[in-house]
Write a structure and sequence with these properties.
mainly alpha
């Protein structure tokens, strides 16, 4: 047992598990809303231009977003 015991500073204490879960859910909701907006945007782009390729490109970009968030952003510190 160490004779030098220091209390945990507030600035170095980790975020509680409940707070981490809440922030992760918030991130996924933000990405899901963005993905929904991308689908709406693709419909608007197709309606305005009549060209399906820009709309398909928008949908193609929005499909891997949840996977990217789960893999990349899931391990980063909280957004705040």
């Amino acid at each position: 047992m160490s004779a030098h015991r220091h209390p945990i500073s507030i600035t170095t204490a980790s975020v509680s598990l409940h707070e981490q879960h809440r922030l992760r859910v918030r991130r996924h909701v933000i990405v899901s809303v963005g993905r929904l907006l991308a689908f709406v945007l693709s419909a608007v782009v197709y309606g305005l231009t009549g060209n399906p390729w820009p709309a398909v490109a928008i949908i193609g970009v929005s499909i891997p977003l949840p996977l990217l968030v789960a893999l990349v952003v899931g391990d980063l510190p909280p957004w705040g």
